[in-house]
Q: What sequence folds into this?
């Protein structure tokens, strides 16, 4: 009880301090705080990509004539650490913009604080729809400084995944699907919505569903169960390191189904080496398509710039999905600020918000625009669709063979594909 | 149901053999020197990462898996010896300091491995690739699991022969029964301890390569085997090789059965319940004897 009271008092004091003390616009530097788990490849790729965007802005005269400075902080993927570094960025460093957060729980952990201090915050990693629906949906004015410029939220991702299931059925006649999801916040949509959406297509059924503890590194029983249920495809949604074990268990045992879905470790350009090639034939959906397909005019320039700049600095050798989104977010905001002709969020927040909501922007990961205040996902990035109405900004990439080595190819949607989807040779 | 039981029987036998290797090394070091080696898990990790460094196709050497396996075992045995001769031998009389020092070694190794290999898990090239599908059992067994089973049992058999049939080996057994008695009959304690650490290290190396292949190779992979070694050794009776083998099979089967029947989240729960029960009912374990106080 005593500790609780002290904690509350501390929070109140710090809030009071910051509300009086913020002065984001009192000098000629535009400061961006980037948040991500930089001990992971995903976070490192994102921080580097934000750096590239900042360099690009500075080369072109900065933001409204101000120099741009990037402050990158490591959240460690932990909500408590995320709160600490976010508070520091806002209160000590007076950042004018926050970008990032990968783990949904970290995003949710800092969101009330960020809403309180009004600093514009562009989410670029976590895809949990609740972040938007349960905040903006409930109290729009309080959370209006918060946006997600990518990836599309996981409700929309689930819809894209169901489109993809229908596509696989067209190609191969596969009709039995299994869904294996991490027991974590980010997979909620895939567990709740995806089965129904897959089965909405005539003839497709979900024959097996299970959730996997994030501590698990033994996947034999899950894969045996999917096999017993006669699954043709396993959609697995896995974000922790065990993914490599999952992949090798599947590949070495040549389980008779394809491995699709979302694997965050599988997005690493280094995953081929990490799994000794066991990831051959597995796919993952990821915004940016792994940097292998020219999604827009900007994509390959960005990837080339990333590779040139960070060639010698260790993995990841490509930006990875959060890199695309963090890069796009910085440039998106800069353009919106230019249109609004202000970065002073304390006095002109509404003007900045209007400029962002009006903006149609070509990013490296795709065409970007935001849902309006009265729509289903206020301030969330809109999905883009192909001529057939299929969601296109959540492309699917596959590990394919390239001599003795592996290569990532974009295999879906067709409009952006760099290669055809290949089924495992043992099927 | 039948297929589930068969699958537990087969998968349990495989993993338990590796667990036995881990526990035997841990229990021997305790039996002979009275040292609780909390870096034992770290030795397992050294085995896995040595194998990774030697055989990884992205690495500089890319040795054939079998050669890599032998070298990884040798490296782990060497590391174990260095740990003893370079550190433990100076502090082993003080249990608390040894306890702390070996934890520090484990944590230090974790950091070194993160610096060298990164924190992301790696997969090892299987010593033998491929698998067989046991249709009647409804599961698949990787050849590497079979190899792990066979190699572990060969190692255990050789150790059994060594400690019961050869003088050198019997001196290890004698020391674990009574240090003073062994000394009085002319056993050189230093040599016996060095040999024990070498053997424990080699066993940890073998286990490391297989655990690293079957599960995953990460800088945190030492924790789980260490906890397992603890549980198995307490259940089997501290210092008893036979007890370690029996308890390893008990725990291995319990884990496999929990995974098959209750799901992977329950993997360790039953083992802990059994551990608690054994501590209450049989504090000296299945084959333990009261420690000789001198």
A:
């Amino acid at each position: 009880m005593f500790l609780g009271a002290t904690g509350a008092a501390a929070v109140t004091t710090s809030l009071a301090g910051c509300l009086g003390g913020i002065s984001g616009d009192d000098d000629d530097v535009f400061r961006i705080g980037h948040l991500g788990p930089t001990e992971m490849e995903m976070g490192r790729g994102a921080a580097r990509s934000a750096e590239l965007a900042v360099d690009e802005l500075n080369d072109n005269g900065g933001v409204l004539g101000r120099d741009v400075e990037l402050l990158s902080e490591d959240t460690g993927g932990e909500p408590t650490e995320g709160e600490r570094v976010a508070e520091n960025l806002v209160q000590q460093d007076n950042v004018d913009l926050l970008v990032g957060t990968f783990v949904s729980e970290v995003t949710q952990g800092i969101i009330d604080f960020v809403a309180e201090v009004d600093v514009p915050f562009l989410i670029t990693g976590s895809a949990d729809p609740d972040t938007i629906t349960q905040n903006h949906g409930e109290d729009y004015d309080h959370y209006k400084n918060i946006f997600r410029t990518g990836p599309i939220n996981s409700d929309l991702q689930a819809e894209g995944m169901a489109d993809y299931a229908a596509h696989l059925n067209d190609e191969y006649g596969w009709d039995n699907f299994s869904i294996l999801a991490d027991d974590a916040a980010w997979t909620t949509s895939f567990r709740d919505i995806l089965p129904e959406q897959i089965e909405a297509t005539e003839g497709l059924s979900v024959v097996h569903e299970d959730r996997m503890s994030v501590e698990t590194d033994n996947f034999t029983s899950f894969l045996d169960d999917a096999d017993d249920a006669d699954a043709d495809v396993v959609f697995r949604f896995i974000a922790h390191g065990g993914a490599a074990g999952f992949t090798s268990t599947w590949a070495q045992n040549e389980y008779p189904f394809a491995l699709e879905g979302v694997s965050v470790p599988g997005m690493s350009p280094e995953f081929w080496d990490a799994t000794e090639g066991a990831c051959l034939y597995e796919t993952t959906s990821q915004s940016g398509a792994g940097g292998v397909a020219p999604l827009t005019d900007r994509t390959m320039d960005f990837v080339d710039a990333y590779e040139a700049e960070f060639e010698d600095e260790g993995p990841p050798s490509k930006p990875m999905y959060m890199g695309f989104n963090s890069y796009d977010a910085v440039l998106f905001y800069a353009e919106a600020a230019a249109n609004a002709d202000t970065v002073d969020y304390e006095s002109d927040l509404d003007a900045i918000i209007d400029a962002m909501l009006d903006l149609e922007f070509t990013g490296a990961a795709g065409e970007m625009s935001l849902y309006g205040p009265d729509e289903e996902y206020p301030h969330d990035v809109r999905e883009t669709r192909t001529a057939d109405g299929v969601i296109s900004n959540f492309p699917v990439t596959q590990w394919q063979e390239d001599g003795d080595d592996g290569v990532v190819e974009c295999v879906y949607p067709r409009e952006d594909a760099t290669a055809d989807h290949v089924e495992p040779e043992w099927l | 149901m039948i297929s589930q039981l068969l699958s537990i029987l087969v998968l349990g036998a495989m993993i338990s053999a590796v667990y036995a290797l881990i526990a035997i090394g841990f229990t021997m070091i305790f039996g002979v020197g009275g040292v609780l080696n909390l870096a034992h898990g770290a030795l397992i990790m050294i085995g896995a990462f040595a194998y990774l460094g030697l055989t990884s196709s992205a690495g500089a050497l890319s040795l054939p898996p079998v050669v890599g396996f032998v070298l990884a075992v040798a490296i782990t045995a060497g590391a174990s010896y260095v740990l003893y001769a370079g550190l433990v031998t100076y502090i082993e009389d003080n249990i608390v300091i040894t306890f702390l020092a070996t934890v520090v070694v484990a944590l230090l190794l974790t950091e070194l491995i993160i610096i060298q290999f990164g924190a992301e898990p790696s997969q090892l090239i299987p010593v033998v690739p491929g698998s067989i599908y046991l249709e009647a059992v409804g599961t698949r067994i990787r050849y590497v699991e079979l190899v792990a089973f066979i190699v572990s049992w060969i190692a255990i058999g050789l150790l059994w022969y060594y400690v019961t049939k050869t003088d050198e080996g019997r001196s290890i057994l004698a020391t674990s029964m009574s240090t003073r008695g062994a000394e009085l009959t002319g056993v050189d304690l230093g040599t016996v301890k060095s040999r024990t650490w070498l053997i424990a290290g080699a066993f940890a190396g073998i286990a490391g390569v297989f655990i690293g292949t079957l599960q995953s190779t990460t800088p945190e992979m030492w924790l789980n085997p260490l906890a397992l070694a603890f549980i198995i050794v307490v259940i089997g009776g501290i210092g008893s090789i036979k007890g370690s083998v029996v308890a390893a099979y008990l725990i291995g089967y319990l884990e496999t059965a929990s995974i098959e029947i209750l799901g992977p989240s329950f993997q360790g729960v039953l083992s802990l319940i059994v551990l608690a029960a054994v501590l209450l009912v049989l504090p000296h374990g299945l084959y333990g004897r009261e420690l000789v106080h001198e």
